[in-house]
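Reopening this ticket.

The earlier resolution said the output was attached, but the attachment link was broken on my side. Pasting everything inline this time so it's all in one place.
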Amino acid sequence: MEWKSRSVLKGHEWSSVRSLYKGMGFSDYDLERPLIGIANAWNNANPGHNNLRQVSEFVRQGILQAGGTPVEFGIIGPCDGMGCGNNGMRFILPARGLIADEVETMAELNHFDGIVLLGSCDKVIPGLLMASARLDIPAIICNGGPMLGGVVFDGRESDNSSTVEALGMLQTGQITEAEYQALEDGCCPCNGSCSFLGTANTMCAVAEALGMSLPGSSMVPAVLAERFRYAQASGRRIVEMVREELTARKIITRESLSNALRLGMAIGGSTNMALHFPAIAYESECDFTMDEIDEIARSTPHLALIYPNGPCNVPDFYGAGGVPAVMKHLLPLLDAGAVTCMGVGWDTILKDVPLVENEIIHSMQNPWHEWGSLAVLRGNLAPNTAITKPTAIRRDMLSFRGKAICFNSEEDATQAIGDGKIQEGMVVVIRYEGPKGGPGMREMVRIMKLLYGRNLALSTAVVTDGRFSGTNNGCFVGHVSPEASEGGPIALVQDGDMISIDIPGGKLDVEVSDETLAERRKSWKAPECLNKGYLRRFALHAESADKGAILKNR
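Inline output:
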């Protein structure tokens, strides 16, 4: 087998390339072995990636141990939390495509034979998976691990999102300034992706179930030495994958995507899965529709109770058995022979894994909920679908009917909540926050947390063409498509319109006649995009949420 790197490192005509490597200290011996890229999202701009410099050292050790040559480069690693409730959030979803482009550019430029992808956070893991599928070279994901839970607040170990809930409590006099400060100081006790099951930990778990991370590796807390042992093992395994010619598209298939989505549903994963699975499938050239997502959701029981679906956090899930334990229960529903990065299917990997049932992980005969994390809704308010998360919604809130109060931005809605304008029974409609309209499809996490802090989470609902964080609870519906900026019906809703949400029935409707909506449309005008730079390009070219908000590249 002729490795890809040999095409630019072998022969007199490529001495110019070899000389550039030699200028960094590489030897002829180094350049005769498999050339393994390490795409490292390390930074100290967020705790989810702050330990990746150490993780990378162990990956390098593993590559060297197996007879490969590591070549490391940096990529961006944005954190959703840094953009929560501010303009920075507009850049988070668009960053997913940038990450895929960065990895593709460096891997193709340097003709890497294989690549190890280091990241942990919400849009980083999906971007790395998209790049893997696009490149179709041997690839393996190695994440930095979840953070430990913080100080106890409101009856559970806190996390970064707890501060937003506490803000509403502070504003209404339920807690003191000193209690609020103590929470701020103690909710993020160490490095790692946030300790709840938001998009970051959801997608890390999904990458493992997909077969793109070592079995058992994704949920190991950032502070444990086991995290480094898995990193070293990932380095060794990528060299073996190069020699076996086990490329990403042999792993990322329709069958493995279905397996991974089932895992995501079974653990109560983030609504953002509905954006990332179509995008990853697009890059691997196998479509994944909203109908398929809905079918898998409704045929997969919810087996692992992790916050926001329950009181325990991700390190607790790791201690209870993690991804392999849930995959063992799901085995009858899986395509168990789908190839993983180990070169074998889950049937072989799980052979010696015991069936466990405990306070976090239940069996399929005794699930926490009958169906999995997500539900796809349709109706005259969302002709092309909308997404919600029934596992995070109290059973008596799965159906909700109330009068709309409409806002054309997250900021306007936030101000209204702070001013006490939201009352019980209202449906808060937040529009022009979709992929194009935002642009960037911001998360409405602060909205839900502020409503919770004001004791309104269980008596109001939120409907938006934006997104939601994995930590939301209450009654919420996002990803409404078509979005408002494309003239979707959500743009035509007026204050006082009755909105009906029926999650078990898969329905989202505004109780207004087609004739009335058509009359309102006559006076509607598409908003002008005033953004510059990358956000403008994203706004002009992004597909709708039901298509994964992708930027088409073919």
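Reporter confirms the inline version is readable. The mean pLDDT is 95. The CA atoms of residues 47 and 248 lie 28 Å apart.
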